[in-house]
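Input.
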Amino acid sequence: MTNYRSIFGIAAALVFYNVFPSTACGQDLHNLYRIEDAVSDAHVEYHEVRIPAGKEVVLGDLKGPGKVTYWYITDDTGGKFYTGLVFKVFWDGEAGPSVNVPLADFFGAMGGRTIDYQSAPMQIHHLCYMCYLPMPFSQRARFVLANDGDKEYRQSMAWGIDYERSQQFAREKSRLCCAWRRSNPTKDGLHTILDIRGRGHYVGNFLQVYTRFSGWWGEGDTIFHVDGKQITHSPGTEDEYGTCWDFSDTYSSPYCGYLQNDKGNNRMYRWYLPNPVRFQESLKVEIQNQHDNGTPTTTDADDYTSMAYWYQESPHQAVVLQPYAQRTSPSKAGPGKR
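Output.
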């Protein structure tokens, strides 16, 4: 019998590796024979991890110049990461983190709830949370796991970080950045996914929408403000996340997916890998919160949470995360009357 799942996984990997040249992300099949000027290394641990509230542990402290090519993490909670766990990454000598987001949400397990899926740069399979986004650094890469919640975390945990060392990365200025935002509920019919200044390109997001509206909730457009110029990127939420004329069955594919349709909870993702959103001065990414009447929501506003991923030249401003109490507070989504 043909193993279609394996075929899909191989196809997804091939699509991904053809998006980036070998010097940026890895070698595609055609260039697999090519010997690179780099040496591979890895940092792996498996043991009980104890993090009291307000404390943190170092997952890995890598010396550069180099590039992280893959990292994974898992624990024995059975697919329900503690929502107080915060994943931070500090590049080189910067005092503030460029990645500062809830651990589970970094992998698309929004709110700590795991759903298996396959996308090109990020996947979850049977409680294995995997990231293939390339992460160059010139001097040092410090991966940290913090607990900003209200109780101690104590679980058996395993993780691994693959990276390669090469002098070519000493000159690379691009750094991976990630930001988490929640609008509970949205205001003025808009949720801001990202709002930054600098030079770089935006590569994707996860979006979680909780609505109490009984009809079609996803009429909102995605809007890019690129160096001050406003661009409407799609005429509806479903268009942006890989389908048209409403969402139906759940799906996951290399660049887009709709993972959840459960009692008003909707989870989706979009990767801009062959078409990154490039900016030289600033970028703001918004999505409209509109129902099937096509007007901004007011008293029936929904609860939006997003994870954004982008590359930006260093140095840059540290990413700030909303406090634990705000991240986990009960939803204030409107009554949802039509």
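Residues 173-338 form a domain with the Jelly Rolls fold (CATH 2.60.120.1390).
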